[in-house]
Amino acid sequence: MINILILGQTPPPYGGQAVMIQNLLDGTYEGVTLYHLRMNFSAEIDEIGKFKFKKIVHLFTLMTGALYFRIRYNTKCLYYVPGGPNLIPVYRDIILLTGIRWMFTKIMFHFHAGSTYGMYGKIPGVLRPLFKMVYFHPDVAVRITQYNPNDPEMLLAKKEFIIENGIQDEYSGGHSKARNTKKRIIFTGLICRPKGILELIRACDILKRNNEQFTLIVIGKFESPQFKEEVMSLVRSYSLEADIDFTGILIGEQKLNEYYNGDIFCVPSHFETFGLVFLEAMQFSLPVVATNVGGIPALVKHGENGLLVEKGDHVKLAKELTTLLQDESLRNHMGADGRNKYLKEFTLEAFHAKFEKAFLSLQSD
């Protein structure tokens, strides 16, 4: 039996990384026992990556907690999600891992964010030896797709696994889709500039001027009051108030009902290492319009279960949305393909099975 300490944040907030750590903990693994020390640096999505003094205090609480688990439960192996590509999470890691990495005989890094190694040249030279000490030579490193930065190789990991995220299937067959007079385009996530919401609104202006019948459903929280005003000002300038519904955060049945009744899913992100929201949409047989960035091409295959555009191109975005709005048969075909792809590759069961192999590899050399 191998005992592993999982050091990471679980919901809330409901970001992709936190959700996947919870999914990891919910699995049952042959010959593996997981213990969880919960990070709690951010209570809200918009706090992630930002400095707060309470986070410094929490660092030292985690160091104490790690020592407790190491002694009390003989957790010789540590699972950790490195920060990046932002300086504050990297500084956090340097402090925390300097204090605890020495306690464990085996280290597993699970790379969810952008490139951690890419931050090496951006930190002060005096910190680079510490960067090497805490990040280099993990025993096992996990990437979530082959499209993501190759940190395992750059950080000289002894073993590498590619393990795609997987989520619980929440689709219930036989649910009747509401017969909407306007097709419903679904956007969900933190409402911020990097998620491409401004490009999507500009694309909606083109759709409206071309007399397309649609409603854009925007599910999520604005990153700040200032950005909310920028978005709403753009909506007003295009006279789209009646065409865009900002629902706020939806959970449970409310969110599921939007997926059931949606026609197209669109989040034109500037960067995604993976994007769990795309898996959610694929579960519910929604064709996806997204950007050809990061790990998205691992989920969305252009012309199969969705359409991909280059980031920032709202004109092409409008064109691809128009293609799907006007072709019900294509929507149904791509939606079914996405559902099948999810069932074959991205279930929670597949995720747990792959991680069991990765965990067990920690006890073999």
Please describe what this structure looks like:
With 365 residues, the protein is α/β, with parallel strands linked by helices. It folds into two domains: 2-166 and 347-363, Glycogen Phosphorylase B (Rossmann fold), CATH 3.40.50.2000; 183-345, Glycogen Phosphorylase B (Rossmann fold, 3-Layer(aba) Sandwich), CATH 3.40.50. Helices cover 39% and strands 17% of the residues. The protein is built from twelve helices and twelve strands. A six-stranded parallel beta sheet has the order 2-1-3-4-5-6, with helices on both faces. Helix 2 runs parallel beside helix 3, helix 3 packs across helix 4 and helix 6 crosses helix 10. The model has no long low-confidence stretch (mean pLDDT 93).
Defining traits:
Rossmann fold; 12 helices; single chain; 39% helix; 365 residues; alpha/beta; 2 domains; 12 strands; 6-stranded parallel sheet
Short description, anyone?
This protein has 365 residues and is of the alpha/beta class. It is built from twelve helices and twelve strands.
Number of strands: 12
Residues in helix, %: 25-40%
- According to CATH, what is the topology of the largest domain? Rossmann fold
Number of helices: 12
- Tell me the strand order in the biggest sheet: 2-1-3-4-5-6
Please give the CATH class of the largest domain: Alpha Beta
For the largest beta-sheet, the strand count, sense and barrel status come to: 6 strands, parallel
The CATH architecture term of the largest domain is 3-Layer(aba) Sandwich
Shape: globular
User: In percent terms, what proportion of residues is strand?
Assistant: 15-25%
N→C terminal distance: 16 Å
CATH homologous superfamily (4th level) name of the largest domain: Glycogen Phosphorylase B
Structural class: alpha/beta
Q: pLDDT under 50 segments (min length 5)?
A: none
Mean pLDDT: 93
Give helix and strand order, one letter per element, not per position: EHEHEHEHEHEEHEHEHEHEEHHH
Q: How many distinct domains?
A: 2
Task: Supply Rg.
Answer: 21 Å
